[in-house]
Each structure stands twice: as structure tokens, then as C-alpha cells.
Design a protein that fits this description.
- By secondary structure, the protein is α+β, with helices and mostly antiparallel strands.
- The protein folds into two domains: about 1-40; about 45-135, no CATH class.
- It is about 45% helix and about 25% strand.
- It has four helices and five strands.
- It has helices at about 10-40, 45-55, 60-70, 130-135, and strands at about 75-80, 90-100, 105-110, 120, 125-130.
- It has a five-stranded antiparallel beta sheet with strand order 1-2-3-4-5.
- Strand 4 and strand 5 (about 125-130) form a beta hairpin.
- The N and C termini lie far apart (about 65 Å).
């Protein structure tokens, strides 16, 4: 079956609409796959939930989350970034903002798997800092 067009402009118009639609579909597919690949895992085990809950109740995190909700109308994300290993028995909890196409991390905290002690993770110096020391440093996001 062959389509006949009296006016070649009609054919060009249809082709441009098909191209535009295909671009939109490909863009949406790419975005969906990107978001799925970057999705943060929600705490699954009771231990992960406890680690996130401990960090979520730190006064600094509560205060910053309230500020963030007031300013942007949405809460921060608190997610497990790393699970404990034999060499590193800490849950790493990330305090993040969902920027649609990526996440921006404000803070990382480490929660000891056994003692539940919390420390701040200094990403620049690659070390865990006790909360008291971090609080005295005055570092904020």
C-alpha cells in the first residue's frame, strides 16, 4: 500500500511529527533507565532501618531536613550508601537531595553495626570523625 500526497509539504509535515515523537519516546526511555540505574535502595533489613533511623534523629540532620522542607517543599533522602563488611563494620548512611537526574550528597555518617555508635565520614580525608569532634568543627553542608 502506498500513500499518495497531493502536496509534498503534507508528507514533510508528517515526517517531522514522526521524528519529533520518536525523539520524545527515546528521551523518556533514556530518562527512565537512568533513574532506575540511579535509584537509591530503601533500607530493607531491620539493621539498615535502625542505622538510617539513628542518623535521621541527629539534631543536625533534623534541623537541616526541616530547613530543606521549608525552603524546597520536599524532604532530604536518607539512604544506606554502603553495607558493613568484615573489614569495615559500619553502615554508611547518606543524607542526599534528589536532583531528578542525580543525587547530591550533603553528609555521610557511619553507624557501627554492633555498637550503633555514629561518626561523621570525612570524604576529603577519608576518615571517620567522632560526632563531638565534627560538631565542634562547625562544618555544615
Amino acid at each position: 500500500m502506498r500513500a499518495e500526497f497531493e502536496n509534498p509539504a503534507d508528507f514533510l509535515y508528517i515526517v517531522s511529527k514522526v521524528k519529533s515523537t520518536m525523539k520524545s519516546i527515546l528521551t523518556l526511555l533514556f530518562l527512565a533507565f537512568s533513574l532506575a540505574a540511579m535509584a537509591q535502595d530503601a533500607p530493607e533489613t531491620p539493621q539498615e532501618k535502625k542505622a538510617v533511623d539513628l542518623v535521621a534523629h541527629l539534631p543536625e540532620v533534623v534541623r537541616f531536613n526541616k530547613y530543606f522542607i521549608k525552603k524546597f517543599g520536599r524532604p532530604l533522602i536518607m539512604a544506606i550508601d554502603k553495607d558493613p563488611t568484615a573489614a569495615n563494620p559500619f553502615y554508611t548512611v547518606a543524607i542526599e537531595e534528589d536532583m531528578v537526574d542525580h543525587y547530591f550528597t550533603y553528609w555521610w555518617f557511619c553507624v557501627n553495626e554492633k555498637t550503633k555508635a555514629i561518626s561523621y565520614y570525612d570524604v576529603i580525608n577519608d576518615k571517620k570523625v567522632p560526632l563531638e569532634v565534627w560538631r565542634k568543627s562547625g562544618r555544615k553542608p
